[in-house]
Specification:
Blueprint (H helix, E strand, L loop, with lengths): L11 E7 L3 H7 L3 H7 L27 E7 L4 E8 L5 E4 L6 H4 L13 E10 L4 E13 L2 E13 L4 H4 L4 E4 L13 H7 L7 E5 L8 E5 L12 E4 L2 E2 L2 E10 L2 E4 L4 E5 L6 E3 L1 H4 L15 H5 L2 H9 L4 E5 L4 E3 L2 E3 L2 E3 L2 E3 L6 E3 L1 H4 L2 E6 L4 E6 L2
Length: 376
């Protein structure tokens, strides 16, 4: 009898931790009020960079507080990164960066890596909050147990402003499509697929709703123990971001937004849930007390609406592809907020972490679709 072995692609779970939010960090340093005045935030600018300088309707609501650890180079240099389905580039701070934001974060040193290859290409990225410029290089990237060789990534040279200075993570690992990657850099997951490093061309995400550990992104597979019932598959409407078509948004059976259909992006790199300002401030004429579908600032000042929000927390439903998705108010640190912010770009909606963490979500590149399932 002869024996043979086959090296199989890996299915890797990368733990994510829910850290202290940027808002909390700024508040603890007594800088929140001043930051809000000096740094208007437009969530649309992440998806439409030409809007970066437009006035924001509601600043600094993108907390970006779920992050995990990767390593780059030989020997490995460790970095904490946001696994961001709303962008496509991998970048980390580097020793070439002189911005204040780089002084208190881990910085990649190419001279310390025997596998680093330099390029002459530059990189510039604008997010909803914060931006970076730098250069591109190639090296080995370790994500969990996956060794992603010859991966192109950004080495920051500037990280203007104070957003990234107070961020609890070093850099960002984008998980959207190559079509929106700055400078045409191949995204990490595309490189993994091209090198046959994952069992399936998909990844899945579970975000814990409390301060405890347990959140993860799983590359190459699905953990069925985290959801109940079946996966509800929704086709993508564009191969750019993880964009789907929603049929409507209803409250207590009444259509209150997205009438006739609208586009929505499922984005792990955005904390809240964003929609058109006229729709996120909606107050139902037939449900005068069900007004938690408003800004978190209004809710925070109105205890009666707080209580009503808790009572009506199953009344709001998002309907992508005729699949009804109940959505609840956000409860953090003993208080309740709506979890909404405004974004005014052609009726676009952004389904961020407060939405994602109520479901097990699968991002399927092989079939260009996403799946939502109720948590177990």
């Amino acid at each position: 009898m002869s024996f043979w072995s086959l090296s199989l692609p890996l299915l890797i779970r990368v733990p994510l931790q829910k850290g202290k939010s940027l808002r909390q960090n700024l508040k603890e340093h007594g800088l929140l009020e001043d930051f809000l005045k000096k740094n208007p935030y437009n969530p649309a600018s992440k998806y439409f960079p030409n809007l970066a300088n437009d006035a924001a309707s509601e600043p600094l609501t993108n907390y970006m507080d779920y992050y995990g650890t990767i390593s780059i180079g030989t020997p490995a240099q460790d970095f904490t990164v946001i696994f961001d389905t709303g962008s496509s580039n991998l970048w980390v701070p580097s020793v070439y960066c002189s911005s204040a934001a780089c002084t208190n974060h881990n910085r990649f040193n190419p001279s310390d890596s025997s596998t680093y290859e330099a390029t002459s290409q530059s990189l510039s990225i604008q997010y909803g909050t914060g931006s970076m410029t730098g250069i591109l290089g190639y090296d080995t990237v370790q994500v969990g147990g996956i060794e992603d060789t010859n991966q192109i990534f950004g080495l920051s040279e500037t990280e203007p402003g104070s957003f990234f200075y107070y961020a609890p993570f070093d850099g960002i690992l984008g998980l959207a499509f190559p079509s929106i990657s700055s400078s045409g850099a191949t995204p990490v997951f595309d490189n993994m697929m091209n090198e046959g490093l994952v069992s399936e061309d998909l990844f899945s995400v579970y975000l814990s709703s409390d301060e405890q550990s347990g959140s993860f992104v799983m590359f190459g597979g699905i953990d069925s123990s985290y959801y109940s019932g079946s996966l509800n598959w929704i086709p993508l409407s564009a191969e750019t971001y993880w964009e789907i078509t929603m049929d409507s948004v209803t409250m207590n059976g009444e259509t209150i937004a997205c009438s006739g259909g609208c586009q929505a992006i499922i984005d792990t790199g955005t904390s809240l849930l964003a929609g058109p300002s006229t729709e996120v401030s909606y107050q139902s004429p037939t449900q005068p007390n069900a007004t938690w579908f408003e800004s978190s600032q209004i809710l925070a000042q109105d205890g009666k609406r707080h209580q009503q929000a808790l009572q009506d927390d199953n009344s709001l439903k998002f309907q992508p592809n005729n699949y009804h998705v109940p959505f609840s108010p956000v409860q953090e640190s003993g208080s309740c907020t709506s979890g909404f912010e405004s974004i005014d770009v052609d009726g676009l909606w952004i389904l961020g972490d407060v939405f994602i963490r109520q479901y097990y979500v699968v991002f399927d590149r092989a079939n260009n679709q996403v799946a939502l399932a109720s948590l177990a």
